[in-house]
Amino acid sequence: MGFGYNPDLTNFGERLDILNFFSWMRNLGGTLGSTEWTIFDASGYGIVNRMPEKKIMALGNKPTGQQILEVLVSEQERPKRAEIMQNCELRSSYLQRLIEISGIKGRYVDSKTIFRESERYQGALDAALWFVEKLKTECPDLIERIQPKNPNPASQLYLPLEMAEAVYLWNVNLVKAKFGPTTEKDFDEAILGLLEEQLMAYETFRCSFGPRRPGYLSDRNVIWTKSPDAFVTSILARDKEYRNFVAQYLQPFREGDEPLESCAMRMRDQLKLEEVLS
Length: 278
Prior knowledge:
This protein is mainly alpha-helical.
């Protein structure tokens, strides 16, 4: 599963709701048998939203994967993007902590490292760029759903980047399935098309994400690792729909007859990073 960028980790910590996906992973692992999860840190893609239009336009109509990655890396390393990279580093630490506390068998993979070091990802991105052009002709409705009109042309990079991610992980780690929220349905359709074109057996699994935005993105009226006890108690008391959602994803982590509020605060504290606690 890939986890995207959250701009608020520095201010609020990680969202407890991200455990929803790890709860699903635990349950799917029991259903599917012995399962090893690849936790793909896609927060590095967050730089796409901040790319100056002139840099994208300078790439021309048919840039190579190498050219795109060079531009993304150079933008990540600009001093003015330090806040973005700080949030990316925090997401890296939180995801590795989540693997530890959730009880899943998983490996962590960082998109930022792959951008800089992997020629195989460059090749996968070239294949994805070619397939996107094919989809524009053969499935324009799908492309329109994934890439609605946006004044920033950089937004069109998300689809090939995610498709390249699937090809790369298949080639390098034999990752043959993708898991994510229902909002990724159209992306999954495009990814399945590319993998089929590459003669790679592949599956996708999707889950619901509750009454808020997916847990790896930002949202305000939710439990964060920096939320005080009083806020945790209050939101679980006044928002029944959210309480039911939290109760659902925390169920595998509750100890005996532990009250929901106690479990939420215990898991919040386990997810906290040392720099947050100090």
